[in-house]
Amino acid sequence: MSRIGKLPIEIPKDVQISFADSVLSVKGPNGSLTRIIMPVVSLAIGASAIEVTRVDDSTAARAAHGLTRTLVSNMVVGVTKGFKRDLEINGVGYRAEVKGRDLVMALGFSHPINFPIPDGITVDVEKMTKLSVKGFDKELVGQTAAKIRSFRGPEPYKGKGVKYADETILRKAGKTGKK
User: Fold this and answer.
1) Rounded Cα–Cα distance for residues 149 and 169 (Å)
2) Which residue from 168, 116, 141 is spatially nearest to 132, judged by alpha carbons?
3) Are residues 92 and 84 in contact, defined by beta-carbon separation less than 8 angstroms?
4) Which architecture does CATH list for 83-164?
5) Do domains 9-80 and 83-164 have the same CATH topology?
6) pTM (2 d.p.)
7) C-alpha 122 chain-centroid distance
8) Are 107 and 95 in contact (CB under 8 A)?
9) Which of 18, 33, 101, 177 is the most buried (most CB within 10 A)?
10) What CATH number does the domain located at 9-80 have?
11) Is 71 helix (H, G, I), strand (E, B) or coil?
12) What is the pLDDT of residues 5-33, one digit of tens each?
């Protein structure tokens, strides 16, 4: 039995959950999310908790058990609290700002980078070098943060570029001088 999959998911009071035809819908104060649940697992929705169980003991069902429980848990947490990913920009002249629904970044190229912010995501910029990507869908928050990071990933010599706030960059030594 999966250690993660057998844990119950607590349902807060302000969250409404509906499950029909293998489609799970979760509505809360931040928004609503839907997901198709694989047929090898089943959901038992109670008054205060959700239980995820396997239909059989096949390899596919065992693989999907913990995954499904985590995805459903992320949906419940997302519509109540939301998710946040912090990014840092390092480098002389590197900066970002939000203009309307676009994130405009100067990352050392000859042109500014205009990134349209997806629906359901908000980007806050502090001091032009610290970004916060917030939203209620964990996948979309992570995907948006990864896309912003991909425009200029951190390089190992000076550490210039866009990196996650909790990321550590392994630094390399530069060229040695002539003797």
Assistant:
1) 13
2) 141
3) no
4) Alpha-Beta Complex (3.90)
5) yes
6) 0.86
7) 12
8) no
9) 33
10) 3.90.930.12
11) helix
12) 889 999 999 999 999 989 999 999 999 99
